[in-house]
Amino acid sequence: MKNNLNDMPSEEFRKTGYQLVDWITDYLKEIENYPPLSKVNPGDILKRIPQSPPRKGEDIENVLKDVDKILLDGITHWNHPGFMAYFNSTSSGPGILAEFLTAALSVNGMLWKTSPAFTEHEKAMMNWFRQMVGLPENYWGIIYDTASTSSMHAITSAREQLNFGFREKGMAGRNDIPRLRIYCSEHAHSSIEKGAVTLGIGLEGVRKIPVNDKFEMIPEKLEAAINVDLKNGWKPFCAVATVGTTSTTSVDPVEEIASICEKHKLWLHIDSAYAGVTAMIPEMKWITKGWQRADSIVINPHKWMFTPMDLSIYFTRKPEILKQAFSLVPEYLKTKQDEEVENLMDYGIQLGRRFRSLKLWFIIRYFGVEGLSKRINHHIELAKEFAKWIDDEKEFERLAPVPFSTVCFRYSPENKTEEELNKLNEKLLEDINASGKIFLSHTKINGKFVIRLTVGSIRHERGHIEGAWKLIQYLSEKLK
Ligand SMILES: *Cc1c(COP(=O)(O)O)cnc(C)c1O
């Protein structure tokens, strides 16, 4: 049957396609039958996969069967409503369908010409999303894979803005330029440091600014750090304000940071990878205070807008600097329309690009801005409720404010030392995750081992959060 030299025959594709859609439908419907966190040991899955590829083609049915047999128990089910770890990315029906279509079209949006609908659709979606989060019209948007990539492009733009000839001369071996410094809070995401590593700024070029008791950057400390650096010959060039930090979801004071950036001519980048989507909710508009003063902002729909991995949105007021940093057009990529269109390959390190904006189209149109806002707001309300249960329970302690949908807490029975509490909570988290009912993650705040619970799955209902709380209480009792 596999002796033709073409693709899978259409009728076979149709039949298998329906089968796969059935599989996905049942999987999502019955997802709560699985434990959210995979229990396999390292190497278990690898052992099940033949070491060499098959010489002859196999029946696609066998491949589908092996998804169950080989992979499924090694899957951590991010779509499971018991998944309350990290920031849970969940996918939605319309998002999954769009992803399917993206693969079928398989267009590469490197140039306008390589698919006009791609470039113009992405532009339209950026315009929609810009309005959804309330950014002014002078913000230009582009889709990258992850926030790490978006922030790396922000730091590149900040560096390019200095006009030190980095594009031509690079950074190494030069004594005509000072060392560069970028600022972020102690609670900023590690992607900022990775960006600095990638761009030759180095970890020493990242200065972490202390936070207050609500884990927000202290602007006076930022200003002081810049002044000390200037005195010592560093070149401050960029500051990152985080709106929704990864550990505690704290919000840096953007207005104050913006004033300092304006005074010292620093690029201001806002990292709102997780929390940015909440800006579409009227009651949450406060988080966007000062955003119009930022040079760039990153928001990830793949975190809390029911978008399958991956999709990160990067907005900037200065797309021309991005283009100045990255545009290189070899002869074979020149087109007649270059003067009148945007070729997205000019705005980043990648040439080829996936048709990710389709996911936004399907999701935003299916749920509507109102439907999305209501779902996200529901998660915020559930998290606030969970936080209240923690506050009302004498033997538990909440360790950070809850501006969004993430609650940091610990079990803290009386008469225990900090060290004992850390051990106790580490054990409690292990027991919680071994239960096979829910999956939570942890962080360390000021040396304290903290359990984190995030609400944000499109499948989250009140019962799931109540169930989680009952389980946590039950397992903590058993530790006595
Ligand atoms: C999750 C997160 C990131 C990293 O996101 P990726 O898309 O996985 O690169 C960066 N910053 C913040 C604040 C985050 O919450």
What's the quick description here?
The protein is of the alpha/beta class and 480 residues long.
Summarize the structure in words.
The chain has 2 domains: 247 residues, Aspartate Aminotransferase, domain 2, CATH 3.40.640.10; 115 residues, Aspartate Aminotransferase, domain 1. It has 15 helices and 11 strands. It has a 7-stranded mixed β-sheet, sandwiched between helices. Strand 2, helix 8 and strand 3 form a beta-alpha-beta unit. Helix 6 packs across helix 12. The structure holds pyridoxal-5'-phosphate (PLP). Pyridoxal-5'-phosphate (PLP) binds next to helix 6.
Instruction: Give me the Rg, rounded.
Output: 24 Å
- Compounds present? pyridoxal-5'-phosphate
Largest sheet: 7 strands, mixed
- The total count of strands amounts to 11
Which percent band covers the strand fraction? Answer: 5-15%
Which strand order does the major sheet show? 1-7-6-5-4-2-3
Element pattern in H and E = HHHHHEHHEHEHEHEEHEHHEEHEEH
Number of individual domains: 2
Distance between the termini: 64 Å
Helix share bin = 40-55%
CATH top level assignment of the largest domain: Alpha Beta
The DSSP helix count reads 15
**Uncertain regions spanning at least 5 consecutive residues:** none
Structural class comes to alpha/beta
Shape: globular
The average pLDDT value, as a whole number, equals 96
Named CATH topology of the largest domain: Aspartate Aminotransferase, domain 2
CATH architecture label of the largest domain = 3-Layer(aba) Sandwich
